[in-house]
Amino acid sequence: MDFFSSCIALNGSSRPFGNTKTLLNKIEQILEEPHTSSIPIVDLCTLNITPYDYLGRNSGDDFLPLITRCIKNYSHIIFATPIYWYTVSAHTKIFLDRFTDLITIHKNLTEELIGKEISVVASFAGRNQETLLIMKQNVDTIFFNFCHYLKMHYKGSYFAHSSLEEVNTEELKNFFLKIKA
């Protein structure tokens, strides 16, 4: 099975056709066929995924069907997120928080997460290199610890300015070829 057919991308932007989606589309252009023809993109903002609830009152929302689909059909999840205030978007954070459901309620699915891979592509608006380093470190720390706790593999992140003028296509292509290895 081709690596890219085992991937799903979760777009955490509040705009399904914003800069983050444009970045995902740019990835498809850079990697070209046949690599990306089968990477589904799910726009989290179009789903009803509510914050974690200790009483489980949100069990009927869209989280469980989506995470079950991810676990059963894909070995690699690409989180695509804009960066807001030095961290991931609210849609991405809520989705990550809901993994608590797997740990507390759907424990059988937690075991199926072991060995799955995660990578991140992020769009950001700032141009200050020091700020970019802080954002990247924050995001990498979140996902590294998340993966470590769930016995998953964090494959890294790629950051692109939201204008997408400065996307180094060779660097982006190399990032995906590296996580594929």
TrEMBL record:
Where do the NADPH-dependent FMN reductase-like domain residues begin and end?
8-129
Q: Which UniProt keywords apply?
A: Flavoprotein, FMN
Q: Name one GO molecular function term.
A: oxidoreductase activity
Q: What domain of life is recorded for the organism?
A: Bacteria
Keyword Flavoprotein listed? The answer is: yes
Q: Which PANTHER family match?
A: NAD(P)H-DEPENDENT FMN-CONTAINING OXIDOREDUCTASE YWQN-RELATED (PTHR43278)
Kindly provide the name given to this protein in its UniProt entry.
Putative NAD(P)H-dependent FMN-containing oxidoreductase YwqN
Can you name the source organism?
A: Holospora elegans E1
Lineage start:
Bacteria, Pseudomonadati, Pseudomonadota, Alphaproteobacteria, Holosporales
